[in-house]
Amino acid sequence: MIRRPQTAVTPPPPHLQPKRGLRMINRRQIDTLLSSIVTVKPHETTPLLHSAASFFFILSAYFVVLPLRDEGAISLGLSHLPSLFIGSLILTLIAAPLSTVLFSLPNLSKSKVI
Question: Full-prediction pTM beyond 0.70?
Answer without folding.
Answer: no
